[in-house]
DNA sequence: CGAGCCCTTGATGCATTTCAACGAATGTGG
DNA sequence: CCACATTCGTTGAAATGCATCAAGGGCTCG
């Protein structure tokens, strides 16, 4: 379906993408017009791929609702999950001819899909947006560095604590409760550990009264400070 | 010292930075002029910092010779090494106000130092170079993803095998021999393992006749195909 | 030659994986 | 609505990989 700028989610996602700075209202309005005419919003079901590793890099995507997982698999069957993307994040920020990872919807998700061609065109006409895009790229870079840092850290349970803190930030909306969009296996492949270790990690953190597990996916951070401490010990 | 464009290493490094494409000779010549007037080549001794985590992000750096290590340390004393940079690589490609890692020379290194201000200026005047810069950023992003992928690999020895293959590509100059610029401890912190495990990994790979160790730093890849197989098993 | 540094190797204990069984939640067809 | 299958998560026990502790070897440089 064509992009409907009046939908609350779409606006939120785009605002989060563009950031709160610099862009004057005229530029913004024109840009929105461009988008609504030339790009669309697409709905994906759980498990459906936005694209696969090896596909031509022709679009960028901005999730409006739901959650997207970036992953790469080996011939030998193992898998690395690179990131979980939520509302207002962006994927496909790359000049590479071909995607070198796959993107898959974790649950029912709405996603804005913009062609790279349109994007290049927009960059030429709105330097402010091109600049913002560069900022985003460098922010992503710094996020991945953080992730790499965490991967090198001591214990599996600490890495899990990091993930939960991150998820609270991104999903908690100011509260200490959130709903995990991914499975234990997804978390395991994200943090480089086995499914069972992930599960034991949850149990351990619950036993220490740092978190509470309402059901498999509904998590509460009970002791944020202590959990942070646990993660960075 | 001011940048001497006639020096072979400098040319090589800049060419590798700029890539082999697109830029017409006029643009190139002007750009080189700009650089030689406004930037400099600096020599660093082993262990010396180019910058530290938290320093203002005011320069980008391009190694001409030697090797630079990017690292971040925790308060609790552990360390993550993010990358080893060699001739023609680039560091400081980020819009972040402050570096979020340190850069340290591993051995005697010459480095071209360019102010971010000059760089921005150059981008405005030479769009082709701005575009190239964006390509580089996205290439770096994809390198870090590869690194993240490797960190998720099963065993420590496999990760080491990956590193050695990477080093052969970058240092071997077409041969199967190369000189490692970093210590066992550096490798350990890069791959998220202990120094001892790294050492045992070397011994193991040698025992399997996949590599040969002339001395601690002089390595030969004996069986590239088998080593690749070992790394991805 | 000896000091210092880095690397290697061995022994031990702990963290994590693997294998296996079970439990909870969800969906399906009779 | 209830058996039943299926999927996903938890937990236990055994095996393995890795970190840690500790000792010793080799190289370099004064």
TrEMBL record, chains A, B:
InterPro entries assigned to the protein according to its UniProt record, in alphabetical order: cNMP-bd_dom, cNMP-bd_dom_sf, Env_Response_Regulators, HTH_CRP, RmlC-like_jellyroll, Tscrpt_reg_HTH_Crp-type_CS, WH-like_DNA-bd_sf, WH_DNA-bd_sf
One Gene Ontology term, aspect cellular component: cytosol
Record domain HTH crp-type: where: 154-225
One MF term in the entry's GO annotations: DNA binding
Domain Cyclic nucleotide-binding: 23-92
Keywords, sorted A to Z: DNA-binding, Transcription, Transcription regulation
Protein name, UniProt field: Cyclic nucleotide-binding domain-containing protein
Species, as recorded: Thalassotalea mangrovi
Superkingdom to which the source organism belongs: Bacteria
Pfam family, one: HTH_Crp_2
């Amino acid at each position: 379906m064509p992009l409907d700028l009046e939908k609350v989610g779409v606006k939120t996602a785009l605002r989060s993408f563009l950031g709160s700075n610099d862009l004057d209202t005229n530029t913004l309005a024109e840009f929105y017009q461009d988008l609504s005419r030339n790009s669309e919003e697409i709905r994906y079901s759980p498990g459906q791929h936005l694209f696969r590793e090896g596909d031509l890099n022709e679009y960028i995507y901005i999730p409006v609702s739901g959650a997207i997982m970036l992953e790469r698999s080996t011939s030998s069957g193992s898998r690395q999950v690179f990131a979980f993307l939520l509302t207002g994040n962006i994927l496909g920020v790359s000049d590479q001819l071909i995607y070198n990872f796959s993107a898959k919807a974790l649950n029912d998700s709405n996603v804005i899909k913009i062609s790279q061609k349109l994007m290049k065109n927009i960059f030429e006409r709105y330097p402010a947006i091109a600049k913002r895009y560069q900022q985003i790229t460098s922010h992503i870079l710094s996020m991945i560095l953080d992730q790499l840092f965490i991967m090198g850290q001591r214990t599996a349970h600490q890495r899990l604590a990091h993930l939960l803190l991150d998820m609270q930030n991104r999903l908690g909306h100011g509260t200490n409760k959130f709903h995990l969009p991914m499975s234990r296996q997804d978390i395991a492949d994200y943090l480089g550990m086995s499914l069972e270790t992930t599960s034991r990690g949850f149990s351990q953190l619950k036993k220490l009264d740092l978190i509470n597990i309402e059901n498999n996916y509904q998590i509460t951070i009970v002791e944020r400070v202590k959990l942070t401490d646990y993660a960075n010990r």
